[in-house]
Amino acid sequence: MESSVVVFPPCAWTELSPVIRKFLLSLRSKHRLYFITSAPLPSEAGTSMTALSIHELRELQLPKELLLTIVMHPAWILEALPLGAAKLTVLLTDDYGSDSLWRKYRDWLCARGDLVIAPTEPFYFEQCFRRSAVALMDGTDPVSDRLAVQALDWVLEGFDPSPLLRLQQHIRAERCRGIAASDPTEATSSYYYSIYRYLTGDLQEAQTAIVEAYVREIMQGNEHALKSHYLFLSAIQLKLGQTEQAIRTYEIAAQSEGEHAVVHQLFNWLDSGQEELARAVLFRLNDDYNEALPLLLQLADHSLDAKRILQDTYLQTGRLEQALLLTSGEPRPSPASKQEQALLEGTVLLLQGERHASIHKLLEAAVYRQDCLANLAEIITIEAAAIRLAEGETEHAR
Question: Strand order in 4-8's β-sheet?
Protein backbone atom coordinates (compact mmCIF):
# COMPACT_ATOMS: atom_id res chain seq x y z
CA MET A 1 0.00 0.00 0.00
CA GLU A 2 1.01 3.60 -0.62
CA SER A 3 2.21 5.59 2.40
CA SER A 4 0.58 8.88 3.31
CA VAL A 5 2.18 12.14 4.48
CA VAL A 6 0.06 14.57 6.47
CA VAL A 7 1.41 18.14 6.53
CA PHE A 8 0.44 20.42 9.42
CA PRO A 9 1.41 23.88 8.13
CA PRO A 10 2.29 27.10 9.99
CA CYS A 11 0.42 29.24 7.44
CA ALA A 12 -1.37 29.11 4.09
CA TRP A 13 0.27 27.11 1.28
CA THR A 14 1.21 30.27 -0.64
CA GLU A 15 2.98 31.69 2.44
CA LEU A 16 5.35 28.73 2.80
CA SER A 17 8.93 29.33 1.66
CA PRO A 18 9.76 28.25 -1.91
CA VAL A 19 12.22 25.68 -0.55
CA ILE A 20 9.56 23.99 1.59
CA ARG A 21 6.90 24.11 -1.14
CA LYS A 22 9.33 22.56 -3.62
CA PHE A 23 10.20 19.78 -1.18
CA LEU A 24 6.57 18.99 -0.41
CA LEU A 25 5.73 18.87 -4.10
CA SER A 26 8.63 16.48 -4.66
CA LEU A 27 7.03 13.99 -2.27
CA ARG A 28 4.04 13.47 -4.56
CA SER A 29 5.83 10.82 -6.59
CA LYS A 30 6.38 8.64 -3.50
CA HIS A 31 3.52 9.33 -1.10
CA ARG A 32 -0.07 10.40 -0.96
CA LEU A 33 -0.08 13.95 0.43
CA TYR A 34 -2.59 15.60 2.74
CA PHE A 35 -2.36 19.29 3.64
CA ILE A 36 -4.40 20.47 6.62
CA THR A 37 -6.37 23.52 5.56
CA SER A 38 -9.96 24.65 5.42
CA ALA A 39 -9.31 26.47 2.12
CA PRO A 40 -8.88 24.98 -1.36
CA LEU A 41 -5.28 24.39 -2.43
CA PRO A 42 -3.95 26.43 -5.36
CA SER A 43 -3.38 24.76 -8.72
CA GLU A 44 0.39 24.60 -8.01
CA ALA A 45 -0.30 21.87 -5.45
CA GLY A 46 -1.85 19.71 -8.15
CA THR A 47 -4.38 16.95 -7.83
CA SER A 48 -2.08 14.58 -5.93
CA MET A 49 -2.16 16.74 -2.80
CA THR A 50 -5.42 16.64 -0.87
CA ALA A 51 -6.70 19.48 1.29
CA LEU A 52 -8.10 18.24 4.61
CA SER A 53 -10.03 20.22 7.21
CA ILE A 54 -9.46 19.46 10.89
CA HIS A 55 -12.81 17.65 11.01
CA GLU A 56 -11.91 15.55 7.97
CA LEU A 57 -8.54 14.73 9.52
CA ARG A 58 -10.24 13.33 12.61
CA GLU A 59 -12.44 11.13 10.43
CA LEU A 60 -9.56 9.93 8.25
CA GLN A 61 -8.80 6.24 8.56
CA LEU A 62 -5.21 5.50 7.56
CA PRO A 63 -2.97 2.60 8.65
CA LYS A 64 -0.62 3.99 11.31
CA GLU A 65 2.31 2.00 9.97
CA LEU A 66 1.94 3.80 6.62
CA LEU A 67 1.29 7.25 8.08
CA LEU A 68 3.98 9.96 8.15
CA THR A 69 3.59 13.48 9.52
CA ILE A 70 5.35 16.81 9.05
CA VAL A 71 4.37 19.18 11.87
CA MET A 72 5.33 22.83 11.40
CA HIS A 73 3.75 24.57 14.40
CA PRO A 74 3.30 23.61 18.10
CA ALA A 75 -0.43 24.39 17.91
CA TRP A 76 -0.93 21.19 15.88
CA ILE A 77 0.29 18.96 18.69
CA LEU A 78 -3.19 17.89 19.86
CA GLU A 79 -4.12 16.90 16.32
CA ALA A 80 -0.82 15.34 15.20
CA LEU A 81 0.26 13.20 18.16
CA PRO A 82 -2.96 11.18 18.55
CA LEU A 83 -2.60 9.97 14.94
CA GLY A 84 0.20 7.67 16.13
CA ALA A 85 2.12 8.06 12.89
CA ALA A 86 4.98 5.69 12.08
CA LYS A 87 7.21 8.76 11.67
CA LEU A 88 6.68 12.17 13.25
CA THR A 89 8.91 14.91 11.89
CA VAL A 90 9.02 18.47 13.19
CA LEU A 91 9.90 21.23 10.74
CA LEU A 92 9.77 24.60 12.49
CA THR A 93 10.05 27.99 10.78
CA ASP A 94 10.12 29.83 14.14
CA ASP A 95 11.65 28.70 17.41
CA TYR A 96 8.82 30.28 19.49
CA GLY A 97 11.34 30.89 22.25
CA SER A 98 9.80 34.18 23.42
CA ASP A 99 6.37 32.70 24.14
CA SER A 100 6.05 30.47 27.22
CA LEU A 101 2.95 28.61 25.99
CA TRP A 102 4.27 27.79 22.51
CA ARG A 103 7.70 27.02 23.96
CA LYS A 104 6.20 24.41 26.29
CA TYR A 105 4.16 22.70 23.59
CA ARG A 106 7.07 23.00 21.16
CA ASP A 107 9.29 21.10 23.60
CA TRP A 108 6.66 18.38 24.05
CA LEU A 109 6.31 18.08 20.30
CA CYS A 110 10.05 17.94 19.63
CA ALA A 111 10.54 15.31 22.35
CA ARG A 112 8.41 12.96 20.25
CA GLY A 113 9.93 13.78 16.88
CA ASP A 114 11.87 11.26 14.82
CA LEU A 115 13.58 14.32 13.32
CA VAL A 116 13.57 17.96 14.41
CA ILE A 117 14.55 20.67 11.94
CA ALA A 118 15.43 23.88 13.75
CA PRO A 119 15.18 27.38 12.23
CA THR A 120 17.94 29.02 14.33
CA GLU A 121 21.37 28.00 15.56
CA PRO A 122 20.69 28.55 19.29
CA PHE A 123 17.56 26.38 19.13
CA TYR A 124 19.45 23.83 17.03
CA PHE A 125 22.14 23.53 19.72
CA GLU A 126 19.48 23.20 22.42
CA GLN A 127 17.85 20.34 20.55
CA CYS A 128 21.18 18.63 19.82
CA PHE A 129 21.76 18.45 23.58
CA ARG A 130 18.36 16.77 24.02
CA ARG A 131 18.10 14.21 21.20
CA SER A 132 20.05 12.65 18.34
CA ALA A 133 18.17 13.48 15.13
CA VAL A 134 18.34 17.26 14.67
CA ALA A 135 18.99 19.32 11.55
CA LEU A 136 19.37 23.05 10.96
CA MET A 137 17.66 25.01 8.21
CA ASP A 138 18.18 28.72 8.83
CA GLY A 139 18.64 30.05 5.30
CA THR A 140 22.25 31.14 5.80
CA ASP A 141 23.92 28.30 3.89
CA PRO A 142 22.26 26.69 0.84
CA VAL A 143 24.28 23.49 1.10
CA SER A 144 23.41 23.11 4.78
CA ASP A 145 19.73 23.76 4.07
CA ARG A 146 19.71 21.12 1.33
CA LEU A 147 21.16 18.59 3.78
CA ALA A 148 18.34 19.35 6.22
CA VAL A 149 15.73 18.78 3.51
CA GLN A 150 17.49 15.58 2.45
CA ALA A 151 17.52 14.36 6.06
CA LEU A 152 13.76 14.91 6.23
CA ASP A 153 13.31 12.94 3.01
CA TRP A 154 15.46 10.10 4.38
CA VAL A 155 13.39 9.86 7.58
CA LEU A 156 10.15 9.78 5.62
CA GLU A 157 11.63 6.98 3.48
CA GLY A 158 12.64 5.01 6.58
CA PHE A 159 16.40 5.65 6.45
CA ASP A 160 18.71 6.76 9.26
CA PRO A 161 19.64 10.43 8.64
CA SER A 162 22.72 10.34 10.90
CA PRO A 163 25.32 10.51 8.08
CA LEU A 164 23.67 13.65 6.69
CA LEU A 165 23.37 15.23 10.12
CA ARG A 166 27.05 14.60 10.90
CA LEU A 167 28.04 16.06 7.54
CA GLN A 168 25.94 19.13 8.22
CA GLN A 169 27.68 19.66 11.57
CA HIS A 170 31.11 19.51 9.92
CA ILE A 171 29.99 21.97 7.22
CA ARG A 172 28.56 24.37 9.78
CA ALA A 173 31.69 24.07 11.91
CA GLU A 174 33.93 25.00 8.99
CA ARG A 175 31.64 27.91 8.15
CA CYS A 176 31.97 29.26 11.69
CA ARG A 177 35.72 28.72 11.67
CA GLY A 178 36.01 30.65 8.41
CA ILE A 179 34.01 33.59 9.75
CA ALA A 180 36.07 33.68 12.94
CA ALA A 181 39.34 33.52 10.98
CA SER A 182 38.35 36.41 8.76
CA ASP A 183 37.39 38.69 11.65
CA PRO A 184 39.49 38.56 14.86
CA THR A 185 36.77 40.47 16.73
CA GLU A 186 34.02 37.95 15.84
CA ALA A 187 33.41 36.05 19.09
CA THR A 188 30.07 34.37 18.44
CA SER A 189 31.29 32.32 15.47
CA SER A 190 34.27 31.15 17.50
CA TYR A 191 31.93 30.10 20.30
CA TYR A 192 29.62 28.28 17.88
CA TYR A 193 32.63 26.58 16.29
CA SER A 194 33.51 25.17 19.71
CA ILE A 195 29.97 23.81 20.15
CA TYR A 196 29.99 22.18 16.72
CA ARG A 197 33.31 20.50 17.48
CA TYR A 198 31.91 19.30 20.80
CA LEU A 199 29.00 17.76 18.91
CA THR A 200 31.28 16.11 16.34
CA GLY A 201 33.50 14.71 19.10
CA ASP A 202 36.57 16.81 18.26
CA LEU A 203 37.04 17.67 21.92
CA GLN A 204 40.59 19.05 21.87
CA GLU A 205 39.59 21.38 19.06
CA ALA A 206 36.46 22.36 20.99
CA GLN A 207 38.56 23.14 24.06
CA THR A 208 40.97 25.33 22.11
CA ALA A 209 38.09 27.13 20.41
CA ILE A 210 36.15 27.92 23.58
CA VAL A 211 39.22 29.46 25.19
CA GLU A 212 39.80 31.54 22.05
CA ALA A 213 36.15 32.60 22.04
CA TYR A 214 36.44 33.66 25.69
CA VAL A 215 39.54 35.75 24.96
CA ARG A 216 37.69 37.46 22.10
CA GLU A 217 34.77 38.27 24.37
CA ILE A 218 37.06 39.72 27.04
CA MET A 219 38.87 41.84 24.44
CA GLN A 220 35.48 43.33 23.58
CA GLY A 221 34.72 44.04 27.21
CA ASN A 222 32.10 41.31 27.71
CA GLU A 223 32.64 40.32 31.33
CA HIS A 224 29.58 38.04 31.33
CA ALA A 225 31.37 35.55 29.06
CA LEU A 226 33.14 34.01 32.05
CA LYS A 227 30.01 32.17 33.15
CA SER A 228 28.83 30.88 29.76
CA HIS A 229 32.23 30.00 28.31
CA TYR A 230 33.76 28.42 31.41
CA LEU A 231 30.56 26.49 32.03
CA PHE A 232 30.83 25.01 28.55
CA LEU A 233 34.54 24.36 29.06
CA SER A 234 33.56 22.21 32.05
CA ALA A 235 31.35 20.08 29.75
CA ILE A 236 34.25 19.58 27.33
CA GLN A 237 36.49 18.51 30.21
CA LEU A 238 33.81 16.08 31.40
CA LYS A 239 33.72 14.40 28.00
CA LEU A 240 37.53 14.22 28.11
CA GLY A 241 37.19 12.28 31.38
CA GLN A 242 38.56 15.10 33.56
CA THR A 243 35.80 15.17 36.18
CA GLU A 244 37.65 16.94 39.00
CA GLN A 245 39.08 19.55 36.64
CA ALA A 246 35.61 20.08 35.17
CA ILE A 247 34.17 20.80 38.62
CA ARG A 248 37.00 23.24 39.35
CA THR A 249 36.32 24.98 36.04
CA TYR A 250 32.64 25.25 36.94
CA GLU A 251 33.71 26.68 40.30
CA ILE A 252 35.47 29.53 38.45
CA ALA A 253 32.21 30.29 36.62
CA ALA A 254 30.04 30.01 39.76
CA GLN A 255 28.82 33.41 40.94
CA SER A 256 25.73 33.10 43.11
CA GLU A 257 25.44 31.53 46.53
CA GLY A 258 23.34 28.76 45.03
CA GLU A 259 25.98 27.98 42.39
CA HIS A 260 28.70 27.76 45.05
CA ALA A 261 26.46 25.37 46.99
CA VAL A 262 26.24 23.22 43.85
CA VAL A 263 30.05 23.20 43.60
CA HIS A 264 30.21 22.00 47.23
CA GLN A 265 27.72 19.22 46.48
CA LEU A 266 29.60 18.14 43.35
CA PHE A 267 32.83 17.79 45.33
CA ASN A 268 30.97 15.89 48.07
CA TRP A 269 29.70 13.38 45.52
CA LEU A 270 33.14 13.08 43.97
CA ASP A 271 34.83 12.52 47.34
CA SER A 272 32.23 9.94 48.42
CA GLY A 273 32.73 7.79 45.33
CA GLN A 274 29.68 9.08 43.40
CA GLU A 275 31.61 10.45 40.45
CA GLU A 276 28.97 9.40 37.91
CA LEU A 277 26.28 11.37 39.75
CA ALA A 278 28.55 14.43 39.86
CA ARG A 279 29.18 14.05 36.12
CA ALA A 280 25.47 13.72 35.36
CA VAL A 281 24.59 16.86 37.31
CA LEU A 282 27.38 18.89 35.73
CA PHE A 283 26.29 17.77 32.26
CA ARG A 284 22.78 18.88 33.21
CA LEU A 285 24.06 22.26 34.31
CA ASN A 286 25.43 22.55 30.77
CA ASP A 287 21.99 21.57 29.40
CA ASP A 288 23.58 18.49 27.83
CA TYR A 289 20.77 16.09 28.63
CA ASN A 290 22.01 13.56 26.07
CA GLU A 291 25.05 12.90 28.25
CA ALA A 292 23.25 13.24 31.59
CA LEU A 293 20.35 10.86 30.92
CA PRO A 294 22.30 7.58 30.44
CA LEU A 295 24.26 8.26 33.63
CA LEU A 296 21.11 8.99 35.63
CA LEU A 297 19.35 5.91 34.28
CA GLN A 298 22.19 3.72 35.53
CA LEU A 299 22.06 5.31 38.99
CA ALA A 300 18.32 5.79 39.55
CA ASP A 301 17.63 2.28 40.91
CA HIS A 302 19.97 2.71 43.86
CA SER A 303 20.16 6.49 44.38
CA LEU A 304 17.23 8.66 45.44
CA ASP A 305 19.16 11.75 44.36
CA ALA A 306 19.65 10.30 40.89
CA LYS A 307 16.00 9.26 40.62
CA ARG A 308 14.81 12.74 41.61
CA ILE A 309 17.17 14.39 39.12
CA LEU A 310 16.19 11.88 36.42
CA GLN A 311 12.50 12.72 36.85
CA ASP A 312 13.23 16.43 36.61
CA THR A 313 15.38 15.80 33.53
CA TYR A 314 12.53 13.94 31.85
CA LEU A 315 10.23 16.87 32.57
CA GLN A 316 12.77 19.42 31.38
CA THR A 317 13.19 17.62 28.07
CA GLY A 318 9.48 17.01 27.45
CA ARG A 319 9.64 13.25 28.06
CA LEU A 320 6.41 13.22 30.06
CA GLU A 321 5.58 9.54 29.62
CA GLN A 322 8.94 8.50 31.06
CA ALA A 323 8.52 10.91 33.98
CA LEU A 324 5.07 9.44 34.66
CA LEU A 325 6.39 5.88 34.68
CA LEU A 326 9.09 6.91 37.14
CA THR A 327 6.60 8.37 39.63
CA SER A 328 3.80 5.79 39.36
CA GLY A 329 3.19 3.68 42.45
CA GLU A 330 5.11 5.84 44.93
CA PRO A 331 4.09 4.98 48.53
CA ARG A 332 2.13 7.53 50.58
CA PRO A 333 2.26 10.47 48.21
CA SER A 334 1.84 13.95 49.74
CA PRO A 335 -0.95 16.29 48.56
CA ALA A 336 1.65 18.13 46.46
CA SER A 337 2.76 14.82 44.93
CA LYS A 338 -0.87 13.86 44.20
CA GLN A 339 -1.38 17.20 42.45
CA GLU A 340 1.78 16.81 40.39
CA GLN A 341 0.85 13.22 39.50
CA ALA A 342 -2.67 14.19 38.41
CA LEU A 343 -1.33 17.09 36.37
CA LEU A 344 1.25 14.87 34.68
CA GLU A 345 -1.29 12.11 33.98
CA GLY A 346 -3.72 14.67 32.56
CA THR A 347 -1.11 16.13 30.26
CA VAL A 348 -0.01 12.72 28.97
CA LEU A 349 -3.64 11.77 28.30
CA LEU A 350 -4.14 15.04 26.44
CA LEU A 351 -1.17 14.39 24.15
CA GLN A 352 -2.49 10.88 23.51
CA GLY A 353 -5.79 12.32 22.29
CA GLU A 354 -7.79 11.28 25.38
CA ARG A 355 -9.38 14.71 25.81
CA HIS A 356 -12.19 13.84 28.25
CA ALA A 357 -10.00 11.68 30.47
CA SER A 358 -7.38 14.42 30.42
CA ILE A 359 -9.86 17.09 31.54
CA HIS A 360 -10.97 14.82 34.39
CA LYS A 361 -7.36 14.46 35.60
CA LEU A 362 -6.65 18.18 35.25
CA LEU A 363 -9.75 18.96 37.33
CA GLU A 364 -8.46 16.47 39.90
CA ALA A 365 -5.17 18.38 40.00
CA ALA A 366 -7.10 21.64 40.47
CA VAL A 367 -8.56 20.24 43.72
CA TYR A 368 -5.09 20.60 45.22
CA ARG A 369 -4.10 23.81 43.40
CA GLN A 370 -6.59 26.06 41.67
CA ASP A 371 -3.96 27.50 39.34
CA CYS A 372 -4.02 24.11 37.59
CA LEU A 373 -7.24 25.33 35.97
CA ALA A 374 -4.97 27.34 33.66
CA ASN A 375 -4.11 24.06 31.95
CA LEU A 376 -7.73 23.68 30.90
CA ALA A 377 -7.68 27.17 29.40
CA GLU A 378 -4.54 26.20 27.48
CA ILE A 379 -6.44 23.41 25.71
CA ILE A 380 -8.94 25.93 24.37
CA THR A 381 -6.11 28.26 23.30
CA ILE A 382 -4.26 25.50 21.46
CA GLU A 383 -7.35 24.20 19.69
CA ALA A 384 -8.37 27.71 18.62
CA ALA A 385 -4.87 28.37 17.26
CA ALA A 386 -5.00 25.17 15.19
CA ILE A 387 -8.29 26.32 13.65
CA ARG A 388 -6.72 29.66 12.71
CA LEU A 389 -3.75 27.89 11.14
CA ALA A 390 -6.11 25.76 9.09
CA GLU A 391 -7.76 28.97 7.90
CA GLY A 392 -4.39 30.19 6.62
CA GLU A 393 -3.57 32.60 9.42
CA THR A 394 -0.10 32.78 10.94
CA GLU A 395 0.35 32.09 14.66
CA HIS A 396 3.47 33.93 15.77
CA ALA A 397 4.78 34.06 19.30
CA ARG A 398 2.39 36.21 21.31
Answer: 49-52, 32-36, 4-8, 67-71, 87-91, 115-118, 134-136
